[in-house]
Design brief:
3 helices, cell-cell adhesion mediator activity, glycoprotein, elongated, 5-stranded mixed sheet, endoplasmic reticulum, 272 residues, alpha+beta, 4-stranded antiparallel sheet, binds 2-acetamido-2-deoxy-beta-D-glucopyranose, transmembrane helix
Length: 272
């Protein structure tokens, strides 16, 4: 591994000025494009700084990276592993007037993933399948396929007036209008391509029948019916027991008297 790192450093030094240098008059030799490896050291070396170099740093996607200070004219940065997370544009910046910069490009094939691996839709509704890519460089070409067994059939934008594809560098969306219960369910594959290769992801589409949307409602109806039946049966079984109870001195009339009395009281109070 040490030898590999050394090789990267040496080739970086040999293939000077491959990374674009755009300081006024400054010459920066930067590591050429990196596409794979572990513990890769990328570096920049400035030779004709316009003014004294006060310091230097690295930046990626607007974030400053921690680096070790060595000499003012040389700076390096360690990439533990080249993958979709570490891919991107690394800028080395020398603090001269004006600033002197160079870029090291770390490029990988697209890292494509499904926003949701399984998508559910109701019959007749619009289904939306989304794939994204989180790597550098951006995807230049997106395509969609229908996976049937071992065969991938291309999904053509606008076909059947139901299939529509919308893509940009990071993201692609396949919209399927008025989902069909039998024809549309299945696996769909999105395929992203950039200069380094391709990546893909598969999304399963499930389509529920319109009736299925009714199931929760029917469930509640069934539940209510069961409850009503239970209460009905319970009441029916209780009534014969209550008949002998009524014999012991007319509790019901007493109760009704009590309520009548209360009623009167209330009515009187209201009248006052
Ligand atoms: C920087 O580049 C110069 C000229 O290309 C070379 O002589 C020098 O050895 C390099 N320094 C480092 C630390 O790579
Ligand atoms: C800085 O150098 C130390 C010791 O040489 C090393 O352990 C550390 O990983 C280096 N850090 C970076 C960001 O290169
Ligand atoms: C698909 O077609 C629609 C119009 O029908 C268009 O707006 C869209 O950009 C097309 N998508 C692709 C990826 O070409
Ligand atoms: C890709 O996504 C990043 C943020 O995740 C954004 O900054 C960048 O502009 C996007 N690129 C494109 C081509 O849409
Ligand atoms: C993905 O698309 C590229 C061209 O854009 C093609 O070469 C490649 O075979 C496709 N991959 C799959 C799995 O269909």
């Amino acid at each position: 591994m040490g030898a590999w790192v050394a090789a990267v450093l040496v080739s970086g030094a040999l293939l000077c000025a491959v990374g674009g240098a755009f300081g006024a008059g400054a010459k920066i030799s930067a590591t050429p494009e990196v596409t794979a490896g572990s513990n890769v050291i990328i570096s920049c070396n400035i030779t004709e700084p316009p003014t004294a170099v006060k310091g230097h740093y690295w930046e990626k996607g607007g974030t400053r990276l921690d680096t070790n200070e060595t000499s003012p004219e040389f700076t390096s940065y360690l990439i533990p592993k080249v993958d979709h997370d570490t891919s991107g544009e690394y800028h080395c910046i020398f603090e001269t007037v004006p600033l002197s910069k160079a870029t090291v490009y770390v490029k990988v094939k697209p890292h494509v993933y499904a926003y949701k691996k399984t998508e559910h839709g109701n019959e007749g509704d619009t289904g939306m399948l989304v794939c994204k890519s989180s790597s550098y460089p951006p995807v230049t070409q997106w395509s969609w396929f229908r996976v049937v067994g071992d065969v991938s059939q291309p999904v053509v934008n606008g076909s059947e007036d139901r299939f529509f594809i919308k893509s940009d560098g990071n993201k692609t969306e396949l919209r399927i209008l008025s989902l069909h219960l039998e024809k549309d369910p299945g696996d769909y594959m999105c395929n992203g391509t950039n200069e380094k290769g391709e990546g893909n992801a598969v999304i399963s589409l499930r389509v529920r029948s319109r009736l299925a949307a009714l199931w929760p409602f029917l469930g509640i109806v069934a539940e209510v019916l069961v409850l009503v039946t239970i209460i009905f049966i319970y009441e029916k079984r209780r009534q014969p027991n209550q008949v002998p109870d009524d014999d012991d001195g007319g509790s019901a009339p007493l109760k009704s008297n009590a309520t009548n009395y209360k009623d009167k009281n209330v009515r009187q109070r209201n009248a006052n």
